[in-house]
Structure formats: structure tokens, C-alpha cells
Design goal:
The protein has 481 residues and is of the alpha+beta class. Helix content is 33%, strand content 23%. The protein is built from 11 helices and 15 strands. The strands form 4 sheets. It has a 6-stranded mixed β-sheet with strand order 12-14-15-10-9-13. Strands 2-1-7-6-5 form a 5-stranded antiparallel β-sheet, with helices on both faces. Helix 2 runs parallel beside helix 4 and helix 4 packs across helix 5.
């Protein structure tokens, strides 16, 4: 394992920093490209590539809007997750329809699935199709009253689920989306809700992607009847038809009345998904105009989705930006058999990029490039490492940045192992010793000690020699006597 030539405090700080850097790399930043579309009519938009989690386009994504019938996406989620038997029959009571005949003008003339009060041949599944295909408002209340004791209890489940999904700017007040002041969400929150249903709720996409549904007979339709999806992008006879678009839900109100009775223009909302050429998207849009400049009804929500999808599928390709084991940097090695070590990317990173960028390639883009929108910024964890180093040891980070936004962080690892060189180790230890501030004073002190020792030994030898000579003289005198 490599070590760092730093103080322990600095080492600890780097480790803590590296931990938080690794945690933050799990978060995907928005690339948010500029669409080649003349006009985006919707006031709020959030479009995400589901294969890479890259945000393709965002506009007022955290602003609160009235979702209108897009509310029914959450209604469907609650039913699909809480109903034990979708084939069980439901009871249709006046409680499910009374609010549409009351004093609140915002509840008048809703879109319906043409259910009759007292009808006993409808299943939960039929009601779900009635909710999502023709956008039946009574279907939402029927489902709520058959699953819960009251509509209010059902709405509580809707809000609880929104909180669980991380929706910080969402509150539901009914099952169907007819205007109420405290029934609101944001494009981003509705993306979270739809993404959850898309990924985790069985049958959801099958239901909301259905173009037409046959409902059983009732008093007003003794032979049964067919209802069609309100989403024009999945209708083959529509000017907005795209064969690769699927579901999810429309929403629209021409006008609404506030608590003071004043009239306000409504709008159109839409949530769709798309799959084509190996790419998948979710697109949420809120508050497109309900009427054109001549006062005629026009589906600007469908027009926005049509243009954004065509732009996305014609403008982006999937490309490998960083290859696994791609050489990205080098680091100095001390006390090793080699003094330089290459660092390679631990894993591959691929993402969608504009076609013109892909044709030009991303090779050569780096942190000092000012022309390429894709940049690769290398951060080494250590200025140098000390052998031995194991192959695959994390020694740095590579940040992939697109248009100034961090989109991925990849570990940089040792391309190979480096063993310790004993000769280099001894030489380095020697250099380390001589580099210390106290080495030369200590060496001088040692020299003084050695010189003193030599002087003392010389004096002692001289003294011993003198004593020996004295004893020799005395011996000779004794012999003469």
C-alpha cells in the first residue's frame, strides 16, 4: 500500500475530502443543452435521457405549476401499489360525482370516462383505464372511495408518496387535477413521480400507453363503448403523432376561478416517454397556452413535445468519452523500481453527445482546452507515492465536465504494480536524513565528540607511556644497586 509524504493531519484531511468527493460523484449534473427549436411554448419543462440520467433540457423546472390532469399519474400509482386485486369490482356511488355538480365552478364539466352511478360491472382495472386513457375525473374519485374511507384519506396517501419520492414542491388536494389552489407540483417533481412509476410500478406504462379501451355496458351505453387516449402524440391520425412516443398523461384547463371568483387563463400540461434508436426519454411540460393568438384551441403542449423529441433524436448520439484503462495521467514514485507510474481510468464512461461533437471526437480535450465543450480534469490524491504500489490502487480522480457542468467522476488507478527497490530505498532514506535541519549540527557535534575522544585517548596514551618510562627508569636504578 502506498503512503504519503505528508503529516498525518494532512493525510486525514485528504481522506475525508476524497470521501465526500466520491459521494458527490454519484449525483448527475444537468448538461441542459440548447434546443434547436424556434419556440418552446410551455412555461415549465424538464427532459431527461433515461439511459445516462443527463438532463437534456430544463426550463423553470423547480417552479410550481398547476398540473391539471397530470395529477392522475400519482392517483394511478397509489391504486396500483395498494389494490390487492385489480380485477375486483368497484362500487360507484354519488359521493364519487357529487363534487362535479356543486357550487365550485372549477369542478364543472370535467372530462369523464362515462361511468354511471350504481354501475356494478366495472373493475379497478377498468377504472384505471378510465382514469388514464380518456382522463376520466370521476374514475379518480371512484378508485379513491373504493380503496379508502374517503377521498381525503386517499389524497393523504398521494402526498405521503410524493414526500417519499423526494418531491419538495408538490402538494395534491384531489385525485383528478381539476383546479384547486393547493394542488400543485413542479416539472422536476413530476419527473421524479413519473420516473418512479416508469421504473417500479407494474402495469403503469401498459395502461397509460393504451390508445383505446373498450368499457362494459351501462345505462347510457347498453352495447358498451370505446374511449380514446387524449395524448395526440400516440394517435396515428394526429399531426403530432410520433410512433416512438408512449403514454403518459395529458392535462388541460381552459380557465379557472380563484377564491375571489376572478377568472384566470388555464393551460395545457403533458408528460410523455419515448424510446428510439436505443435512447429513452421522459419529458414533462407545464402551462402551455390553451388557445392560439386567434382564440382557437391549439395543443401547444403536444407541439412542444413533438419538436423536442425530434430535435433530441436528430441531434445526439451515444459515445464513449472515457475508456476503461485509458491512460489519463502519471505520478512520481519514490523508492520504487520505476520512478514514474501511469494512472488509468478504472471504468468506462459513455454518454450522449451532440453529433457534431461526436464526429469531431473528444480526444485531446483536457482541462486546459478552451474549444471543446467536453473537458477532463485530473486531480491527483498525492503529489507522489512511495513504493510498493499495487495495481488498481486509487491514486486520483478524473472529472468529466460538459459545458462547465460536472457529469461524471471516475477513479484513476495504478496501471501496474511497482515493487520497492532496496537500493532506492536506502538512497532515499539517506537523502531524507541529510535533508533534515538537524543533520549537519548533529554531524558537527559527532565530529567534536570524536575529536575529543581522540584527544583524550592520545593524552591517556601519553600518560601511560610516561608512567611506563618512569617504571623502567626505577627498575634500572634498582638493578645498579
Amino acid at each position: 500500500m502506498s503512503t504519503v509524504k505528508k503529516y498525518k493531519g494532512i493525510f486525514s484531511f485528504l481522506m475525508i475530502f476524497a470521501f465526500f468527493l466520491g459521494f458527490s460523484s454519484q449525483l448527475k449534473a444537468s448538461a441542459n443543452f440548447v434546443p434547436d427549436v424556434k419556440t418552446i411554448y410551455s412555461e415549465g419543462v424538464y427532459m431527461v435521457n433515461l439511459d445516462t440520467d443527463v438532463v437534456i433540457y430544463a426550463k423553470n423546472e423547480h417552479q410550481r405549476f398547476y398540473p391539471y390532469s397530470v395529477t392522475k399519474i400519482m392517483t394511478a400509482i397509489i391504486v396500483l401499489e395498494n389494490c390487492p386485486d385489480l380485477n375486483a369490482k368497484v362500487r360507484i356511488s354519488y359521493d364519487a360525482t357529487n363534487q362535479f355538480w356543486g357550487d365550485d365552478k372549477n369542478m364543472w364539466n370535467p372530462s369523464t370516462a362515462a361511468f354511471d352511478v350504481g354501475q356494478d360491472n366495472l373493475s379497478y382495472l377498468d377504472c384505471l383505464y378510465g382514469l388514464m386513457v380518456p382522463s376520466g375525473c370521476e374514475a379518480g374519485n371512484v378508485l379513491a372511495l373504493n380503496l379508502c374511507d374517503s377521498i381525503e384519506d386517499f389524497v393523504m396517501l398521494m402526498n405521503k408518496k410524493a414526500q417519499e419520492l423526494g418531491c419538495e414542491d408538490t402538494h395534491f388536494s384531489n385525485t383528478h387535477g381539476l383546479w384547486e389552489e393547493d394542488n400543485y407540483t413542479t416539472p422536476y417533481d413530476m419527473y421524479l413521480i413519473t420516473r418512479y412509476a416508469y421504473d417500479h410500478v407494474p402495469k403503469f406504462m401498459d395502461i397509460c400507453d393504451t390508445y383505446s379501451y373498450e368499457f362494459p355496458a351501462n345505462e347510457h351505453n347498453p352495447d358498451g363503448y370505446t374511449k380514446y387516449n387524449s395524448n395526440l402524440l400516440i394517435s396515428a391520425s394526429s399531426d403530432f403523432y410520433l410512433d416512438y412516443v408512449h403514454g403518459v398523461k395529458t392535462g388541460s384547463i381552459d380557465e379557472y376561478y380563484d377564491k375571489n371568483g376572478e377568472t384566470h387563463p388555464g393551460g395545457r400540461s403533458l408528460v410523455t416517454t419515448a424510446q428510439k434508436n436505443g435512447f429513452s426519454y421522459i419529458l414533462v411540460s407545464f402551462q402551455a397556452p390553451y388557445y392560439d393568438e386567434n382564440g382557437e384551441k391549439y395543443h401547444y403542449n403536444a407541439l412542444d413535445h413533438y419538436h423536442l423529441y425530434e430535435w433530441a433524436y436528430n441531434s445526439f448520439v451515444y459515445q464513449t468519452v472515457v475508456s476503461e484503462n485509458e491512460i489519463c495521467s502519471e505520478v512520481d514514485v519514490e523508492q520504487g523500481e520505476n520512478d514514474r507510474l501511469q494512472l488509468v481510468a478504472k471504468n468506462q464512461f459513455s454518454t450522449i453527445v451532440p453529433k457534431d461533437l461526436a464526429e469531431g471526437g473528444t480526444e485531446g480535450s483536457s482541462s486546459d482546452s478552451v474549444t471543446s465543450p467536453v473537458q477532463k480534469k485530473v486531480t491527483l490524491l498525492y503529489d507522489n507515492v512511495i513504493a510498493p504500489v499495487k495495481k488498481g490502487e486509487v491514486l486520483g480522480k478524473l472529472e468529466v465536465i460538459y459545458q462547465g457542468e460536472l457529469v461524471e467522476t471516475i477513479d484513476l488507478v495504478a496501471a501496474r504494480s511497482v515493487e520497492r527497490s532496496q537500493v532506492a530505498y536506502i538512497a532515499d532514506r539517506t537523502r531524507s536524513l541529510t535533508d533534515t535541519s538537524w543533520f549537519f549540527p548533529l554531524l558537527a557535534l559527532l565530529a567534536v565528540c570524536l575529536i575529543t575522544q581522540f584527544v583524550l585517548m592520545a593524552i591517556r596514551r601519553r600518560k601511560l607511556l610516561q608512567e611506563a618510562r618512569k617504571r623502567e627508569r626505577m627498575k634500572r636504578r634498582n638493578n645498579y644497586k
